[in-house]
Fold this sequence. Notes:
Elements: E1 4-5, H1 7-12, E2 18-22, H2 26-31, E3 38-39, H3 42-45, E4 55-59, H4 65-75, E5 80-83, H5 86-95, H6 101-109, H7 113-126, E6 135-139, H8 144-159, E7 165-172, H9 177-189, E8 194-198, H10 201-205, H11 212-230, E9 235-237, H12 242-254, E10 265-267, E11 275-277, H13 285-294, H14 321-335, H15 339-346, E12 357-360, E13 363-366
Parallel strand pairs: 1-5, 2-3, 2-4, 4-5, 6-7, 6-9, 7-8, 9-11
Antiparallel strand pairs: 10-11, 12-13
Helix pairs in contact: 5-9, 12-14, 12-15
Amino acid sequence: MEQEITVQELLKLPQDSYLLIDMRDAYAFSYGHINGAVNIAQEALAEAVLPQDKKLILCCKSGLLSRDAAEQLCEKGYDAYNLSGGYVEWLRLKLENCEITDRVERSIRQKFHQTLWSRFAKAVLTYRLVLPGDKIAVCISGGKDSMLMAKLFQEMKRHDKFPFELVFLVMDPGYSPENRMIIEKNAAAMSIPITVFETDIFRSVYNVDRNACYLCARMRRGHLYKKAQDLGCNKIALGHHFDDVIETTLMSMLYGGQVRTMMPKLHSEHFAGMEIIRPLYLIREDEIIHWRDYNDLHFIQCACRFTDTCTTCAPDRPVSKRQEIKQLIAQLKTVNPQVEQNIFKSVENVDLNAVIKMKFNGKVHHFLDFYDTEGNSGCE
């Protein structure tokens, strides 16, 4: 028999009277979860040892898969309930009338000064990402990285070392109402004045069978460039961090057969005078997660229409290449704690005398082209 419980009812229960089970995968759970929840993914639930003397409250993203799971547990004799609306409903209520600007900004200036603010400032200075007179579109996807980037830019603006302008730009490519709500409420709670514009990208790629994610990313980038340009911006800022850089480097080698990395800034090929900048370039993802959890912040994991409903919480969802690389780096780190830093340094210390071929401005150069020339140091 189906049993439902609302978030409001859950919050009134004594904590020792129930077990809250979050059925989403570990990756989604790590992005944010209800306080006190335990993570038992859907595929593991049937074999899990569960208490008979407590209410079992099942939670997924929106309360769809957890409804069926709760009913199955009831049939086995458990006192099981589905959390109506799931994690999204809990998050919606949490964000109602929430105002956390002072706490978030104070944490950046104090507790995370070295790990976040100083590394942000170092990247801006080292790679000359922000210059006097720039007007920057700070692109906000709604996740932890872009939200932190927005707050760091606000902190930089507060220092007022030289004149530049900011536009906090949110593109809605077809978000569900729930994800749109989370982005808007988080921005309001942290005093980020967002500019939202809408596109139909998700609808355009919905029926694409191959490389849908690649096509979606390209289309999103193009729309961001165009809107930023219309607003008078000369740069768009993206929230890629240090871990993204080293993962991209390894992915290029292992899956792309080439040595290349994610650059801290790039000129646009199709929008004259526009640049991409990546000011989180030197910031570690672990520190972003630490900042998020320290401030009890909850962001969307992925707002893509393909992963927007509970049906995609299924255990047979394929592991992405980036997730494979994350796992590989984690394994390598157990043997060599410096492996991440070494991957990053490898693209800062390229010895052109020790590569077989290189490409520069589209032209391929072979080591034999220079092998017998004067000054070549290709010797042991």
